[in-house]
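PROTEIN–LIGAND DATA SHEET

This sheet pairs a single protein chain with one bound small molecule, magnesium ion, given as SMILES. Inputs appear in the order they were entered. The predicted three-dimensional arrangement of chain and ligand is reported afterwards as a token string under its own label.
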Amino acid sequence: MSAMLEVSGLTKRFGGLVAVKDIGFTIRGGEILGLIGPNGSGKSTVMKCIMGIEKPNEGMVRLEGRDVAGWPTHRIARAGIGLVFQHSHPLQRQTVLEHIVLALLPDNLFMLTADLHVRRRAEEIAARVGLGGVMHRLPRTLPFADLRRLELAKAIARNPKVVLVDEPFAGLTSGEVADFSTLIGSFRAEGHAVLLVDHNVKGVAALVDRVLAMYLGERVAEGSAEEVMRNETVRRVYLGGKIETAARPEREGKGRTPLLDVRGVSVLYGKAQALEDVSIHVGEGEFVSIVGLNGAGKTTLFNAISGLVASSGAINWRGETLAGRTPAQIARGGIVQCPESRELFGEMSVRENLDLGGQHCTPAEAERQIAWLFELFPILQARQGQAARTLSGGEQQMLAIARALMMQPKLLILDEPTLGLAPVILELLSKALERLRQTTDITVLLGEQNVTFALPHADRVYVLEHARIVWEGDPARFAEEAGSGYL
Ligand SMILES: Nc1ncnc2c1ncn2[C@@H]1O[C@H](COP(=O)(O)OP(=O)(O)OP(=O)(O)O)[C@@H](O)[C@H]1O
Ligand SMILES: [Mg+2]
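PREDICTION REPORTED AS:
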């Protein structure tokens, strides 16, 4: 069978940076090509060039033999290419079902209330992606995984010949990854050509027919998943080693001085109970992980601690209540949260974002801190002058973490830091956290559903499920007592 999508000589430059260099591949109908590579290697840019969101400087993009390179996005979409973004920006006032109806009728907003047949079809699609029970809800009331389902539902509704899927598994649990794999597999079964980007190496390997690996904009390997994962360069620049940690630093009295004490905290969003009678404590120098599925309440708990959402119950910091303090006062008191949503200043450069984080340090301290962070994340140094919003997904995550570290927190709260990071960067981050613990008195509160990252570092683990703490204990006992559904 001939190629449905054929890309050749694709090159994209941003000023002096060659983000994509002479990339070429073909995908037949009924075939899934995986595209892997470290953060910033150009994967999303390849997708954007195919979709016409970025104009390639050179190269050809053929859809069933017709070159569409350089066409405007809406024409490319109409010709039959669809992109499933990692971040969804749903409309605020349309329900889930209405979003799918709109996707079924891309050119005709007036038909929203129309055709019964279209509604039926939309309902079918909602059911197929597992949104059957929430069809009439507004997207902002949905948990993260359901928003990702909505993006897939829209892609199914538009029915493009070529589907580009950017990081569908990010932030999903292993069970959700399995669901999504089935859905993406059904694109293949129906004869679509699929290009899949994700950092979940196992998830990608299990699903794809072939893999193309990129590094610094260039192709480094292509073949079966097994061949590519065995490739020396791929191992070195992308996969890295296994996450290992040194023995817990047993500092004298670690954990004995209480720092944070959360007692009986509840949060309501309207009628929805986001946290129910949650109690946790963190002692000085401890590393505490909160493990929980999407929507369990991790972010709400962190936001309550940081003063960003109102809560009932008591939150004490170094023996004093945080009630009545503003988020800024809480942060100045030493609690620094690196939020899941990153909250970078998009128009400001990498360096400016970091400088803001270091505002309260002396210039010499800030200099030292920045030098250390650049050593930790060299790519941030290379991208110093670039506007934060143009960074790749993983680069933004690194910047968010680095900015939090710039503030030299006493308690660092990391909310899903592994989101969108390449395996090799996870290893780096893991080493950095270990080094921080060996050399400073930093205390860490980590929220993760990725237990392979959350467990090795932790002194203690809490499991948060449906707004409640359901387990607390030693990471060594986690697998046996609380692991089902996470491992
Ligand atoms: N508009 C832009 N201006 C300048 N540089 C850009 C722009 N867009 C992307 N880049 C740079 O191009 C490189 C490739 O980015 P891209 O988003 O394609 O990476 P990626 O492989 O998708 O990475 P990730 O896995 O982190 O999502 C990055 O280093 C990024 O900073
Ligand atoms: Mg990307």
